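Review form for a predicted model. The reviewer records the input and the model, then writes brief findings.
Reviewer: anonymous (R2)
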Amino acid sequence: MSADYQQAREALGIRLRELRLAAAGGRLTGAALARRLGWPQPKVSKLENGRQTATPEDLRAWSDGTGQPEAYDELLARLRGFESHIRSWRRQLSSGHKRVQDTHLAAHGDATVLRGWETSMVMGILQTPDYARSVFTRYAELQQSPRDTEEAVRSRMRRQEALYDPTKRFHLLMWEAALHARICPPAVLGAQLDRLLGVIGLDTVELGIVPFGAALKVPPATGFWMYDDRQVIVETWHAELWLDDADSVATHLRVWNTLRESAVYGADAQRVIGEARRAL
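Model under review:
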């Protein structure tokens, strides 16, 4: 968790405490508010001290419970402000994967030059429907989120229409490990690798593969996307980080350019993909 995120969470907690102490009808103790809301008392303390992130439902209950429903919009704006940078999977996937895919569809639509780096699986913009279906199924199991697999697959496939847009350019890098990850049945992975071989011929796509044997100036680390050198999206196990400050963007651009020096393209990339295909 970033320091900025924690500071924003603590600031929200201070505001919640102010509302409790200024409750209509007289100040409330934490225990009294917890009883009124039907919460365990420690929850009030955790929210006020920035040790737990409030949900929109928590904020609605708090503003109503303190007799200040007009404060809800302000509280929600504070929450949305710091969640716009760190978007937890628990919250994003509360209604399934489709909503997340639609968000990325909109982000792709606004960008002209897109850079991507992936270490562990074929990146979504290049996935076949069957491969995407396997990925969504595995993540739904991990995150214990609602199953909307088919809707999510359709949204991901709509994102791929951008690959044929002559106004866009995709500069994509993958570590060779992504070609071997058995996140899906071998037959599905084989079809996915065939798809990658075909992508190399698209004039809007530059696909580079960093082979296992390539010398690396930086560790492969985690994957990320860059949109027009103005925004970076990084996936972790607990959240997505949407970063738009100049330092973060510049750092990720340096990482991407450094990794690119280790990649192979064109016929050499096809050879690496073909070897992975034959290994199946």
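Findings: The CA atoms of residues 74 and 136 lie 35 Å apart.
Further findings: Residues 3-84 form a domain with the 434 Repressor (Amino-terminal Domain) fold (CATH 1.10.260.40).
Recommendation: see findings above.
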